[in-house]
Amino acid sequence: MKIGLTYDLRSWYLERGYSMEDTAEFDKQDTIDALAAEIRHMGFDTELIGNCFQLIGALSAGKNWDLVFNIAEGLYGDGRESVVPAILDQYGIPYVFSGPVVMGISLNKHLTRLIVTEAGVPVSPGMLISDPEDAEKCSLQYPLFIKPVSEGTGKGITEDSLVFTVNELRERAGYLLTRYNQPALVEEYLPGREFTVGIIGSGDDAAAIGGMEIECRDNLPYSVEVKENYQAFCKYHPIAAEFAEDCNTIALKAWKALGGVDAGRVDVKADRNGQICFIEINPLAGLNPVHSDLPILADMAGIKYQELIERIVESALKRYQLTR
User: Fold this and answer.
1) Strand, coil or helix: what is 84?
2) Dihedral of CA 314/306/32/3: which sign?
3) Minimal CA–CA distance to 234: which of 297, 147, 309?
4) Counts for the chain of helices (H) and strands (E), in that order
5) Does any domain span residue 177?
6) E-assigned strands of the chain?
7) 214 with 184, same domain?
8) I want to staple 10 with a disulfide (CB 3.0 to 4.6 A). Which of 26, 179, 185, 292 is the partner?
9) Domain range spanning residue 33?
10) Are 272 and 131 part of one and the same domain?
11) Residue 225 has what pLDDT?
């Protein structure tokens, strides 16, 4: 069986003039090398395909694969994570991780909130801001937390994301709307402890494998800068026993409500009353064996990187009823 890898290599875009922030979600070569090595270790032939442009070129040249391990984030628009899965769907090529609909919805934090709330998952009260003047209509309880509605890896999140007045909200909203050219999501600030939970599997087979608490120095938000320098700014701990059941239950309920498959992460945080609330879901979680949250928390749960990748691939094979 031949497995192809689709991904966005950060250096490929940096060489073409894109900024560090533009490419914050993209992978380094060591991530691709580690993934390819683990898939080969499982006994599969492996081919490095690359990004959506390179995928289109390969398909046009008549190439095909039995399965594609897709970690391509995409570059433009709120459907960017949906591009590679949508292309593969049209060619009838099976792939690892969620399809275009789940990818598109989960990237939009507002749409995700609507779905998980309907499923009974607790979330912090919030609203969407499409114009700075929408701040005047906000009846939420301050302090508030504001971020772009369709970004990942902490992009658009800084210490200024925590706002205490309507003027601060209006000013920050204006900046985000201009900088990211998309609406902003505003939520009542969750002051409690923050956790991320790993999920492996699809449908009834999905299970929470454990998680970790994220403790940022000086109560900094988990921004792109903090994530990229987590050794200096963060401490990661296994989830304490008194929070584990609530975190796992809420994460798994959100995962099933969105229809995530194979593996991903769900971020949760405690509100002012200690209630664990859903923050966001990542069905395309980072897979660097050393620096990414999912492999780190999996290792805390006794699941080494090789086993993590094997369980992800096995989940996809089962979904498509494929045999090695």
Assistant:
1) helix
2) negative
3) 297
4) 12, 13
5) yes
6) 2-6, 45-50, 67-70, 95-96, 126-129, 144-148, 162-163, 184-188, 194-200, 207-216, 234-238, 263-270, 276-282
7) no
8) 26
9) 2-97
10) no
11) 77
